[in-house]
Amino acid sequence: MAPTTRQAKRESNSSAKNVESPRPSSSAATAAPVMEPSTRKKMTKNEKQEVRARARRWAENRHAADALAGSSEENEKAAENEEVAENKESVVDTPLPSLESHSSLVRMTEKQKTINLYYFFAVLPVALLIIGSQFLRAMISPPPSDYGSGSMFDSIAPRYDFINRALALNLDMSWRRRLVEEVVGTEGEIFSATHDTVKILDLATGTADVAILLGQAAARYNKNDPPLRTSSTTTDSATVLGLDPSQNMLDIGTTKVQNADLTNIVRLQLGDALKLDSLVDDTFNAVTMSFGIRNVPEKEIALCEIHRVLKKGPHFPHLRAHPKTVESKLAIMEFSEPTGPGIMAMLARIFIRHCVPAIGAILSGHPKEYMHLQKSIADFPPPTEFVRLMESLKCPIKKVGGDEELEIDTFGSFRVKEVINMLFGSVQIYIATPILKKYVTE
Ligand SMILES: C[S@@+](CC[C@H](N)C(=O)[O-])C[C@H]1O[C@@H](n2cnc3c(N)ncnc32)[C@H](O)[C@@H]1O
Question: Which of 93, 202, 216, 252 has the most CB atoms lying inside 10 A of its own CB?
């Protein structure tokens, strides 16, 4: 009992020592209250009770503060734990590459490797051709500027068609078909527009691809005035006349015309676009020239010869009187180096500059000729310039009646009606009609 009483006394003393005014903060609540010396006097029973009550409140406060501190620590810990858990979750959410997906990654790399290999093998031949064409340029003396005449084509004639198809991936025939369609019309309108025999001249006819297409159109549409089935070899009786200065090209063309059973419609003969002496003025309803004009050095002279032999309305009043008369036409198809900014134009440029001479040289065994081909394309004026050249011509015009006297106030020119671009601007078809102009006198 005694120790208990002493202990109670000690406790009450220590409790009394701990009495203090309530601290506002929880941290303050943890500090032990200090009893002022002035309070050390004998306490009454009431005072003792009050001190005990205050000590109890302090103990409660402290407990509460500890609990609060504990809970905030717990909260922090909990927050930390949550964060860790979240991180864990996010780690778990991001699936680690399974064995299967890993192998698909490996497969993708393999696929990429294959694609790279394809690229490599696609680019390799082009690179080789570029190197080859540069090598040719370095090794072979450049062709003279007048190269491209008939004799040059004589040497490449046997393989000309094959190389054409190979270089143009067989597209060249579709371009020629388009040219012919532009001339004869989709329904062969050129043949139904007049009662006269329709006559078409194909210059630089070569191996007669265009002449044959024209002949086939005539055979199909020329019902009103079918060509006579005679063995005549005169140019007058032919609907389609093909001229070329290369006999070897013409020989191959003649065989093709025979094979196509068009000998009664298509006639081929030697001839130079610069000198169409054998042909009379105002004879042809249409003139075609595919990939030929760039081989002609004096283009203006050839164009004026074409102008001369084309039918011109004012000289043929009966043509104008016919309600369905169509104007005569010149259709020229030619290459030009595409100048456009697009990737396809750039590829076409590389192809024409490097691939054409290199492939042509390999396939024909005549590198100089195919270097000339590329050079003549590079030298050919761009479409706008060629149009200007055609429209600014001043061709001499003979007086009506066919004598040699020239009109002094009239000259001939062309009006370009359409320029059809093909193959990313590397092939053009120029459609023009002959016109007569008067000099303006001041
Ligand atoms: C590239 S080939 C075109 C042949 C044919 N027109 C074609 O579409 O395949 C060029 C032709 O122009 C001929 N040529 C060269 N100089 C010529 C000229 N002054 N007049 C007419 N044709 C000419 C060549 O003999 C050759 O047959």
Answer: 202
Q: Would you state the torsion angle of the CA atoms of residues 208, 422, 357, 160, taken in this order, to the nearest 10 degrees?
A: -10
Residues 331 and 209 in one domain: yes
Q: Where are the beta strands (DSSP E) in 300-385?
A: 329-335
Residue 423 lies in a domain: yes
Report the pocket of ligand 1 as residue ranges, CB < 6 Å. Answer: 148-150, 153, 203-206, 209-210, 244-246, 249, 272-274, 290-292, 295-296
218: containing domain: 171-335+381-438
pLDDT tens, per residue, the chain with 442 residues: 444 444 444 444 444 344 333 444 444 444 444 444 444 556 677 777 887 888 787 767 766 656 555 555 555 555 555 554 444 444 444 444 455 555 655 566 777 878 777 777 777 777 777 776 666 666 666 665 556 678 889 989 999 999 999 988 889 999 999 999 999 999 999 988 877 789 999 999 999 999 999 999 999 988 655 554 444 444 455 699 999 999 999 999 999 999 999 999 999 999 999 999 999 999 999 999 999 999 998 999 999 999 999 998 644 444 444 444 458 999 999 999 988 888 888 888 888 888 888 888 888 888 888 888 888 899 999 999 999 999 999 999 887 765 677 888 889 999 999 999 999 899 999 999 999 888 876 5
CA of 196 to the centre of ligand 1 (A): 29
Q: How far apart are CA 9 and CA 307, in angstroms?
A: 140
Count of C-beta atoms within a 10 Å radius of residue 231? 8
Into how many domains does the chain fold?
2
Ligand 1 mutation target, pool 173, 205, 376, most atoms within 8 A of CB:
205
